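User: Could you write out the 3D structure of this protein bound to adenosine-5'-monophosphate-propyl ester? I've included everything you need below.
Assistant: Certainly. Input first, then the structure.
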Amino acid sequence: MSNGRGPDSETGLGEYEKIDPPTSFAEQATVTDESIYDEFNDTWPDCWERAAATIDWSEPYECVLPNDEPPFEWFAGGTLNASYNCLDRHIEAGAKNRVAIKWESHLGETRTYTYQDLYREVNEFAAALRAQGVEEDDVVTLYMPMIPELPIAMLACARIGAPHNVVFAGLSADALATRLESADSEYLVTCDGYYRRGNAIFLKSKAEDARLKTPHDLSEMVLVEHLGEAEHLGETQHTYDELVSEHAGAEVAPVDRSADDVLFLIHTSGTTGEPKRVEHVTGGYLAHVTWTSQAVLDLKPGDTYLCTANIGWISGHSYVVYGPLAVGATTVMYEGTPNYPEKDRIWSLIEQNAVDVFYTAPTAIRAFMKWGAEYPAQHDLSSLRLLGTVGEPINPRAWQWYYEHVGNEECPIVDTWWQTETGGMMIATLPGIDAMKPGVAGPPLPGTDAKIVDGSGEAVPPNDAGYLVLTRPWPGMPLALRHGRRWGREGTSEIEVNGWNYFTGDGARVDEDGYITVLGRIDDVINVSGYRLGTMEIESAIVDVEGVVEAAVVSVDNAETGGVHAYVTLEAALSGDEQMRERIASHVRERIGPIATLDAVVFTPDLPKTRSGKIMRRFLENIANGEEFGDTSTLRNPEIVGELKSIVRDD
Ligand code: PRX
């Protein structure tokens, strides 16, 4: 966990410094009227018309939400097409020459697609998919890196009503095979390969392996030649360029989808267990992400916007592709890593493209912080108007660094809490209205509601930690929840709460102002001398200690050195010594009680993380227990596992 707590650890009460949104920002914000909270509350669920009005419907809906119990048919009776909303309507409004996608490769090559260019290629590829036999409701799997053909393929699928199933290109052949099967998908669009940190990574061979591992055959495969490595294509394999040029100039009428029809499937990245399939529907999802792109990210037509998320994850679906394109903004796509070739790459992208809004993850911000403020200082970042973060708790120090060194204290920061399952943002401040508290996400967005409960389902008092549950359905809710399946994140299904609710699987705290601090996942419980302690609780005590950036704890079985081991990353300028070890251990004892004894504190420059930035405790457990560890290829930083092994050995 990274530090998601306020600076005051004595009382546990949130004595956060509040920061008002800069006046210059507030004056131009999309949402400026504080009464929006009351208004949404008083008129729920009809308040969500405001979100539905951000998109175009081909058939208007009859009712915002006909039932207050499942099935939740948001915008019942309405029909629409997501690709029409992201393309045609902007062209009809006269914006055909506005840039829709600005792409930059890791080598600095750029490609620019105006809305007209994007419209043309999406139509051509939609025609090509149809010609390959893809019909409405057939699932098309997209196993592709961050290249423009990925959003093009997504929008082409949306145009013909074929749900897409994007699989992150960094995942293995096995992971692809599982996802093809789970989605029952016979069509695959992939790529010969891509570059990462200067090395070519080949995808086609992984796709071929996956194909052999799935029981039902793929009927067609389309290959984008990104490296120029396509050769020996089989009969059912086609290159993207060949298909698009065969359908040059084709126009495909957008298929009318009902609000409840599936737009896409996606699998959660989960740090434990099997990936979970999540289906998002066309109407509610698109309304939710378009509305939050406007209300929270403050995106306006023509804004230039950079989100560093990979499109392989939900953040990329909602806030690289659908939200910004539905708004009519320019979305900047970057293929490479933030430190290649130099550690100022992101700042140079922002400067060169005069980016207005920047959205990234705390793990990236902590890396920027570690590299140093001199990198952003080398660039003119004055085009920035708003900054955002998502994916994990942000520690107040990282927040402050982002605010000062990237935003020059002139940009509000939105700390947005949401999940693959929620489709779009759920908890965040409205940047033109609400004061910010570093490290605290904010109140539930207008029209949504949340509660913090204990193990018996009762609400806990302000500032006490508990389980975060969402207590009102929302338009972006996934199909399974719409249909009333009890379907929460792992580890919480046994807790009963009165009324409709969705268990998020996160721990959180709410303060007197109704601001929620998200503490992290509660999946992990460890056993200490017969007591069950949440890793989250211990980790949040550790990251309270001045100088600590991140921490993960695991339990160790070994009788000699058994107990709780903590892996801790410190700020770059600090070195881990005995004094620091003692400070951490005594703080944990103080906060949780004498039972919470740390048996070892290991300092490490980094923690093993999934590609989406989640800490993988499993590898730490293997290291601590001296066990063999399996496949590290799902890690973003596999090298750290070996490094940690030698740190532990030398300690
Ligand atoms: O634990 C929360 C954390 O990320 C989880 C959702 O992960 P995923 O489905 O991969 O989606 C990531 C992008 C939305 C949550 O259950 N999380 C997300 N945003 C925040 C957060 N934790 C704290 N603060 C946030 N702003």
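The pocket of adenosine-5'-monophosphate-propyl ester is lined by residues 268-269, 314-315, 390-393, 415-420, 441, 504-506, 518, 520-521, 612 (CB under 6 Å).
User: Perfect, thank you.
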